Amino acid sequence: MFSGIVAITKPSVSYFNALGGYVMVRLVFRIGLLSSVALLLFLFGCRPRQAVEEPAATQNLIIYGAMDTVMFSEDLGMIGRALPVVDRYISIPSDLSLEEKVSLLLDSLSLISFNGLSIEVLSLEQTPDGQTLLQVNLQENEAFTGPGSLPSYQSWFGYFQGSTGGLHTSIILRETILQPEYAGPGNWIDAVEFFYMGRPIVKYIWDHITLWGRITQSRIQ
Question: Is 87 part of any domain?
Answer without folding.
Answer: no
